[in-house]
Amino acid sequence: MEKIIRHLKNSEHVLVTSHVNPDGDAIGSLLAMGLSLDALGKKTTFYNKSKIPTVYRFLPYLERIVSKIEGRNREFDTVIVLDCGNLQRVGDLFQSPNLFLRFPVIINIDHHITNTYFGDLQLIDTTACATAEIVYRLIREMAVPVDKAIATCIYTGIFTDTGSFRFSNTNKAAFEICNEMVSVGVDPYNVAKNVYGTYSLGRIKLLNMALDSIELSYNGKLSMMTVTRRMLDETGTQPEDVDGLIHYARRIQNVKIAVLLQEYRNEGKTSDTSPKSKKIGGKKKFHVSLRSDGTVDVATIAADFGGGGHHTAAGFNTESSISDLKNRIFNLMFDV
Ligand code: 5GP
Ligand code: MN
Fold this sequence. Notes:
inorganic pyrophosphatase (n-terminal core); 6-stranded parallel β-sheet; 18% strand
């Protein structure tokens, strides 16, 4: 951590980024880290490739996050990558030609068990409940005062990544840090209201279709939910409306692994990295989410498919026909 702090203090222009299709931890950590660098007097660019889901629009300084890096604003000496198990999770930023004229140092801050230790400096703690927990510790070490805005971002990162203190990653630090954030002025009701507030009618209809799609493996230990592009089109919903649906599949009695197959959306319909579907011989692109009851390590399964994540929550992307994909996943049950 000392090395990272020394490096940051000597940096001039820092790019702070997190993973595509961001969740509360990816956005909360990004904002908290970026605002702290602002407080240190650094020139800071906040970047996330994807559109920010509506439920997180209440977060302070959200307008600072850009989805494109343009013009002269391309010279960074440091890039901080947050909440990403590997560098590809950022999107295609690092593939852009001539982006980094000064070949910056990459700092990797994360809590995923499958982290590849990419970058030049790493701050990885797989026991941290959220990347926001690690960012909090870094901010404290840098002696940046935690104001209400930073506190709200850290609180939201921990609150959402622990599933409101329900998931297995919920630790002592989650309560300690959140308690402190509340004493700085965070309003827990306001955060909860925004994150879990009202649903559009379309989202409720999508929930109905998603529940209807659930299939169980022959032994009842694996549940599979499928969300197609067509379902999104018919209900007028966005990929962000799929967040959280997998929990219904996870809560079925005796289920050890829940799987959500999410068909990628056509590119061009939305400006972000939304899932796209290209039919090549019946093959479609899917994002596959995996959740376990704790008795099965889904991070390993996801890694076998080229993805990653945590023991109880992981994911990967794949291109396959839907029937092949289902067969491959149902076959996993022979090993459980
Ligand atoms: P979700 O199913 O919500 O997309 O992701 C669950 C967990 O798995 C998250 O912690 C996320 O970072 C991780 N994850 C999801 N998709 C991928 C992927 O394609 N690659 C890697 N390395 N991790 C993923
Ligand atoms: Mn996280």
